[in-house]
């Protein structure tokens, strides 16, 4: 289920981590999460998840503080959460999560990104059932057996624990996200290579070289859209 997670994460981080685009998207996501409840991650679990993920992407504190201050103050922008599901070549499945203050613009932009790059939008539910919402937490400095032992001692359930590129990746149910982190922190671990609640595909598909190039162009086009927060897919790329 989780194979190649680190490679995918590192590829995305190398492309995005230092751009204003990804920081701006985190700013919106933090603002929206904070406006949903208290502007305090200890009492707003959705906000805590976003802040944990922002840390792994090295989002500057100034960006985070600006978004939180906006939520505390007079910020009154309204964003709508929308999920689009679609297809690429060879049955490749794609989920696109967005936050938008202009639904018509977002729908048009997402549809164009698919259609101009050999893909097509599906109806709601046509793809998501083939993905599992999963908490993914990555650490370094311990092996699988040590991680399993400390999670068992803390009475925390994990779906899977795997070593990927010298890091141990823990896969768990979304409601175990914070419990896993708390158990790891109790053992002295403070830094996470990955800390996300994501959508992992149940199966993968492989593409020909030409189809994969076109597919990557489509994914890039989607990720470049201002309103797109996350893009998930089930293509198993040798480059990744």
UniProtKB/TrEMBL annotation:
Subcellular location: Cytoplasm
Domain TACO1/YebC-like N-terminal, chain residue ranges per copy: 3-73
Principal cellular location given in the protein's record: cytoplasm
A GO term, aspect molecular function: DNA binding
Alphabetized Gene3D superfamilies for the sequence: 1.10.10.200, 3.30.70.980
Gene Ontology annotations for the cellular component aspect, listed alphabetically: cytosol
InterPro entries per UniProt: Integrase-like_N, TACO1_YebC-like_2nd/3rd_dom, TACO1_YebC_N, Transcrip_reg_TACO1-like, Transcrip_reg_TACO1-like_dom3, Transcrip_reg_TACO1_YeeN, YebC-like
Example GO BP: regulation of DNA-templated transcription
Residues in TACO1/YebC-like second and third domain copies: 79-235
SUPFAM superfamilies, per database record: YebC-like (SSF75625)
Domain of life: Bacteria
A Pfam short name: TACO1_YebC_N
Keyword vocabulary terms for this entry: Cytoplasm, DNA-binding, Transcription, Transcription regulation
Classification via HAMAP family: Transcrip_reg_TACO1, Transcrip_reg_TACO1_YeeN
Membership in a protein family: Belongs to the TACO1 family. YeeN subfamily.
Name of the protein described by the UniProt record: Probable transcriptional regulatory protein FFV09_21340
Source organism: Saccharibacillus brassicae
Lineage: Bacteria, Bacillati, Bacillota, Bacilli, Bacillales
